[in-house]
Amino acid sequence: MSDVSIVLLACNEAECLEQVFEEVVSAFAGTALEIVVVDDGSTDATGRLAADMAARHPGTVTIATHERNFGMGQAIRTGLLAAGGRWVGILPADGQFAPADMRRMYDSREGADAVVGRVTSVERLHSDNLFRVLLSWGLRSFIRLFHPNMPRFNGVMLVDRIRVKADVLVCGSFMAHFEILDRGRRLRPPLAVNALAITVRPRLAGHSKVANPRTILTVAKDVVRLRLSYLIPPLNTAWARPLNQRSAQAMGRG
After folding, report:
1. What's the whole-model pTM score?
2. pLDDT tens across 157-183, in order?
3. Is the pLDDT of residue 126 over 70?
4. Minimal CA–CA distance to 103: which of 180, 156, 58?
5. Cβ-count burial 85-102 (b if 16+ within 10 Å, e if not)
6. Residues 37, 159, 73, 14, Cα dihedral to 10°
């Protein structure tokens, strides 16, 4: 078992992937590292680059490939299920979050089941545009209408794979991050979470896959779906099953 698995979420990130990959390798030098590249239906050279990385770093890289784009939540689920490390860091491959900060989070894990990196709105404005910051604020306000006790999250996370059960997650969007923490607070004992201030950088290349009407609608559906899965537990299994099947198929092809 690796000490840590870093899951790189990649959809058409050929321009960014190699740089982020090398930053992860450098940041986690001295650890038993696994890098899981989740290729979420990329149509560019992301898959080929991931295969090249696996060839250059035998035994270090695991590749999970989705035949089409299923969204961030499904990519997170696939990465968690594919990871072999005790600790799993979830990191977008666009370079906005520095692997060095993920290493700081890993070094801050003592006494915790999860470590979350938090970014202030002022910090985000330095690297993003006002529209995306306002959009993020609006989505978080909507989430709290349905989930008043939802834990705060606005960065990246590192989790103890033993305590996080990926096969029960129902959210297919980035709402999956919130779901992991919210299900964790309902455990007995609750998930112990450490928080660490981190920075956010401009994307290395490409464009955001989040700030668009399709993603906003998916998040809205996930907010309602998660609430209903708590109120009607059988729905939890019914909704999660198709996503679990997709993950199994993806890992079989990786």
Report:
1. 0.89
2. 999 999 998 988 999 999 999 999 999
3. no
4. 156
5. bebbbbbbbbbbbbbebb
6. -30
